[in-house]
Structure formats: structure tokens, C-alpha cells
Amino acid sequence: MNFLERIFESLERHADRPVLQEVHESSVYAVTGRELLAQVEQARAFITAAGMRKGDRCVLLAPNGIRWTAVDLALMADGNIVVPMYARQSAVELVAMMKDCTPARICCADPALRDAVLQNWPDAPPISLFEDIFAAPPTGNTPAAATASPEQKSLSLSDSDPVTIIYTSGTSGEPKGVIFTVANLSHMLPCTTSRLDLLTGKSENAAAPDRVFHYLPLCFAASWIFMLTCLNRGSLLFLSMDLNRLADEMKTAGANYFLNVPTLLERVREKVEEQIQKRGGFAAWLFAKARAADQHRFRNEMNTSDAFYLWLAGRLMFPTMRKTLGANLKALICGSAPLAVDTQLFFGMIGIPVLQGYGLTETTGICTLDIPGKVVPGRVGPAIPGIEMILGEDHEILVRGPHIFAGYWRRPEATEKALAGGWFHSGDQGEVDANGYWRIIGRLKNLIILNSGHNIAPEPIEEKLQHSLPAVKQIVLVGNNLSYLAAVLTADAFDTIEPAHIQSAIAVVNADQPHYKQIRAFYLHREPFTIENGLLTANGKLRRDAIARRLEQPIREMYARKKA
Q: Is the same domain home to 461 and 406?
């Protein structure tokens, strides 16, 4: 069986059990395995009537939801190639990617998204709203549909058949479509399923399902793999419907675990620590002692008094903290960007281990995953079974295995370069210990990765801002592993530059950018970057890593002022 047939089989096996739930402000909308299959059949009937053929691309433009999942499964089952896109991305960027993949149809959540596309692409292919796709009565209650086998529910797909194209940005800022095949998914899902089985002590056949909360956009590779894995395991997956209500939604879900980006975990840690400091007294004293003891334990320097403070906090403080974060929470899973070691230690100290993973879109989202019970803080675990990882020149991580993408859509030269020598060249620098546990230490490329997981090419944004500020000599965007972008500016004479003018120019640039590409702060550096001071290369290119190291303190102060 391929991955899709296994998912359909799992949904049939859990026909009477809820498998997906949308968490709304005043209600929870759930579907069982049977009901989700019925929605898939509805979508398939519409796709067939619309004349879609095997191999046609279809853009899926919508926020997370049960219908998103149903349309995704339906398109793949009919042999179409799904091109999921981020609903919050700017319409200009979305249309550019759509024109690149030349879809036969666009499946869209609502009229607002449709209108935004048409405004920028009047000649767009047919756009179908979800309300039209699911307008016909469900067929899932008919005996034929209810008893259909997985083979009847999906075409006979071969391992080499493409099932999706996910766009990612390269260092040039030009989006590239990453092609995934049936073989990629059929290898990856058993790997992620086995890791979650280890985490929960349950298999997909368990009588009581895992409760899983999910807020990350399903159009991103790792998030999509996580959703498919939950369907494959028969877990009960709660989909967040409002990021502004995350805390309330998490309480409603009562999850055993969920997938995260570092931003959320670091915010949770900061909030807890701030509350403890406000309480003061014995609570603040004990927490400080426990944190220091945990640091000693991490460095293998723990003594008798450290053990006592951790034991005392474990009796008096940590159980309440765990309950506040989630009474059923067994672990957290984190990926997409490096997680601060202190944050990972914090959650581990209070009894909620954080498992890390590492991967890129081109590796079907995942290369490494922590093994439950064998987590090493600061590292992202060992390579998952069947995957090889080695270090190449300049400590670049090279990867090969059945999870490596089939190529970039319509970019043979970029594909050849990325897969040179039979290995995928990640652009990431890493190191590996004697036990095979990997640590990510930097990037060979200029790509900025926020701790939300968004990848941003700085050059196009810098160029736009430079155009509006001719008196500024150089502009460098920063924000790697941080929560937002900021700009460092240099000039020969700052006396002629008004900060208000800079802020106005930034506002103009931000107006055309999605939220994660907007510049939130800036720092005026008095000394221009030159070859002589080591901040430019011989051919005049910015030495970004050197600039970040040289200006580490003022950059840190800039972010601290913005936070305050």
C-alpha cells in the first residue's frame, strides 16, 4: 500500500471515531473517519465533474480546516498535483507562484481570497470556492461509498507519481516549487508514525486516540506531514481556527502533544518566568534555585543541594506549571528553526520534554527527529531510518535517501545543483556527535530564518528600502532565530538623516509585504561597512555573519528596546 491508501484504510478503521476537530470560539466541529471520507468523496465528485485530469496542478488556497484536508486528500486520490499556498501571503507573491506552476484550477476557501487573486491575475484559471465544492449532498452514507476499499478510493498511483508541489524561497528570493512523489510520502509517514508511537506508548490501533493540537499552516511541508501522520495513526487532531485564541484553544483540546515553532515556546517560557518574578517571595527564590540546579545538571556539575532544589520544586511548583500549560501534555515537538537551549531545558525541567526535528522542504520536511527518552538539549536528534547524512565542504550538511524531493518545478539547473554528486546540498552547516545526534550551527546562504520558521531572502527587501533612502549607504536585514526582521543602516553622514524619514520609508516597504517580512525596528550604525574593517568582501559583498558578530550587542539592545 502507498501512503494514501494507508490513510484511507485508517479512516475506515476509525469510521465511527472523531479524527478531526475545528476549535471555534463557541463550539467544536468534529468529523469521524466516515464523515471525512464522505467529504473526500464530495470533493472528488466535484473534481471529476470539473474535468480535472491526472497530473493537472490545482492550487489549494485556504487557512487550516477540515475542508482543506478533504480537498487535499481528494486531489491526491485522483492523481492531481496539489499546490498548497499560504493564505496570509501577499496576493502579488501568490499570483507569481501560481503563474509559475500553471494550475488547471484554484480551490479557494472564500470570496475574499478569490477576489485578491483575480485583482492581480484577471486571466486566472477557474477558481472554485469550498462552498461550491461541498454543495452537493455527501455520498459517504451510501453503502457503496461506505464499503469502498482503499484501492477503489484512489487511483493506482506509482511511486514516481508527483502528489504535491510546495513552494519555498531560495537565497535569491525567487520561489521554487519542490516536487514530492508518492515514494517520498510512503517512506516518511511510517518514520514519523513510529516516532509518535514511541512518544505515546500507543500504536495506531489503540482503543483511545492521542489528542493532538495543531496551529501551524498545513501548506508548509513539516506541518502537512504531521497532519498526514495523525490521520495515519488515527489520532484526534484539533485544528486551531484563530491564532489570537491559541491559549483557549489549547485548553479546549487538552492535547497530549503538538508541533511547534520556537517562537511560541519562547513566549510561553518568558510569560511563565515573568509571572513567577511578579509573585516574588518563596516562589521566585525556589524557581531561581531550581533553574540554576538544572543548568548544573545539563553541564554534569550537579551536587547534593541542586538535587534537593529540583526535588522541592518538583513537589511544590512544577506540577502546577504543567497543569497550567496542559493537564494532558506529555511532550512538545519543535522544528523549522533552532530552539534556544535554555528554553528546551526549561520545559524539560518542569517535566514536559521538547523533541526537536530538523529538515527542509526538499527533504519532505524532515531529516532528523529526537527519540523520546533520549533527547539531548541543543541537538535535533539522529537521522530517521533510511536516511543518510554527512558533512561536506565547510561543514555543509549533505543528505540522501528516499525522502529527497524529485526536483524543482521547471528548474532543471537548480535541481542539478542541489543534487550534485547524488546528495542533496542543504545549505546548512552542522556537526554530529559520536552517537549520531546532529546540531545545526549556521547557514551557508544568506537566508534569514525567523524563529516562527518563515524563510526570508533579505536582498529584495533591502533593495526596496535602499531605493527609498538614497542617503543611506548600506542596509542589512537581521532577524535569524528571532521573532521579526530589523534593519541595520549605515551612512557617511547621519546628521542629514531623520529617524522619522527612515520610519516612513520602512512603512512604505512594509505595506507591500506579508506580516513576517515586515521590518519592525532599525539601528543606525555610524561606521560604514568596508573591506578595511572586515565587513565587506574583496568584491564588495556584505559579510553578513561578520556584521552580525561585530554588532551583536547593539542588535540585541535594539530588540530589547522594541520589546520594552
A: no
Residue type, 108: C
Strands (E), 309-359: 332-334, 354-358
**Which of 223, 240, 256 corresponds to the end of one domain?**
256
Total of domains in the chain: 3
Our CA dihedral for 323, 326, 328, 329, rounded to 10 degrees, sits at -110
What is the Cα–Cα distance from 142 to 167, expressed in whole angstroms? 38
The torsion of the CA quartet 214, 217, 221, 224, rounded to 10 degrees, works out to 50
Q: Are residues 362 and 463 in the same domain?
A: no
For residue 337, give the 3-state DSSP assignment: coil
Tell me which residue of 49, 50, 47, 38 sits closest to 75, measured CA to CA: 47
Question: Are 294 and 378 within one domain?
Answer: yes
CATH of the domain at 105: 3.40.50.12780
Q: Which domain holds residue 557?
A: 457-563
Cell of 531: 573591506
Which grid coordinates are listed for 517?
A: 517580512
Average pLDDT per 10 consecutive residues for the chain, totaling 564 residues: 96 96 92 97 96 96 98 97 93 94 97 96 98 80 40 71 88 78 97 91 74 95 96 96 91 94 88 92 96 95 96 96 90 89 95 96 95 94 95 94 97 96 94 95 82 86 88 91 94 78 94 93 91 75 87 93 71
